[in-house]
Amino acid sequence: MSMFDGLKKKLSSVIKAFSSKEEKELEREEKAEEKAEKAQAQTLPAAPEPRVGERKYEAPEHHESTAHVELTTQQHTSKEMKAPAEHIAHVEEPQHREEPRPQHGRHAIEHPKARESDIHLSAVTKIKGAILGKVKLSDSDIEGFLDTLRVSMLESDVAYNDTEEFLQRLEKSLRESKVSAKDIRSELVRSVRESLLGVISKTQGINLESFVAGRIREANLPVKILFIGPNGTGKTTTIAKVAHMLKQKGASIVISASDTFRAAAIEQTEYHANALHVPIIKSGYGADPASVAFDAVAYAKAHGMQIVLIDSAGRQETNRNLIGELQKMDRVIKPDINIYVGESTAGNAIITQVKEFMKSIRIDGIILTKLDCDAKGGGAISIANETGVPILFLGTGEAYTDLMPYDPQVILDAMLPSS
Ligand SMILES: Nc1nc2c(ncn2[C@@H]2O[C@H](COP(=O)(O)OP(=O)(O)OP(=O)(O)O)[C@@H](O)[C@H]2O)c(=O)[nH]1
Ligand SMILES: [Mg+2]
Which atom of ligand 1 approaches the CA of 403 most closely? Predict the structure, then answer.
């Protein structure tokens, strides 16, 4: 299961079900058109039969009679066309072709073949219109589609407000668009993509790499980055991933093992630091995490190192003592960036957690981990909007390279069927 598979599966099946229903209806419509065309060909005499005693084609009634044939044929055709269309889609009629009104009725009646051929062509144009022309989706269809999507989005952990905003954007786009009948599916994917993009890209994030690069140029060093969040969300692993990424870019890094609370936390951090060939500053369990971080910053300054990545113990937003400890670290160290590490598998609960943390400490960015284990993936759409804090990266596995910049376009690629 790769990330966003759950949401992708849902979106794909809703789009597929809807577009194939529309395609089927159009096919039916097309057949009705063909039937109408055949019926029309049968009802149209090659030339009106003259009545006894009348001169062929010359009596004015014949003109009326021909006109009548044309009229009834068109009525018949439009009935055939509209019956299936009414409840699924509104087919935009091709530009009504004005039948050239004969200047002299008699002259027109004298060329019945030409009139017959005109009527026939007109039917063909209509068929072409149904097949190649633009289709406007009916209100009831749009509503049905949106309702199904709403359920899918909510089931996938997209927050209610974002779901509604997305659906509003989509509804507007679908009502405005005129879809070529054969492109319904790709048009739906395009509209869904555009509407989702509008929701996803509302919160513009800082780019960690360019932020760090900018700070390095300013020589106001070291850059201090503190990682916070609940227990087991992936803070320590994410620090290792970020260290790997920044080291690849040529930055020099120190890690502060400031989780002095959880058993084996220091050894875990040490393991990663050794694997990445990055220095680690540590103390014993029970030591003040702020003092460990202070030492790490001093070490970086003394050695001209550029970045200090500060770990912290996992804590619940309700634990006042541990939150107080975090506030102390924030006061003493004055980190440049505070990153909240949350696991996407927590779904919408992250939104409340982040908001609670924000009451005690500034949060500049979020890293959402374990996207590879998340069958839903909707949180990646909602968290930034709901908290106003941008997502910086997504964790997509346990390897050091499993860290992906949060790029709305890439997320939409992963979330949506290709066409
Ligand atoms: N599949 C997957 N596993 C992850 C990811 N990030 C972290 N993990 C795993 O999640 C578990 C917890 O990760 P840690 O880095 O120890 O989490 P933590 O937040 O530091 O935990 P505490 O310090 O105890 O609060 C480990 O087994 C990691 O390998 C990820 O993006 N995907
Ligand atoms: Mg940890």
Answer: 31
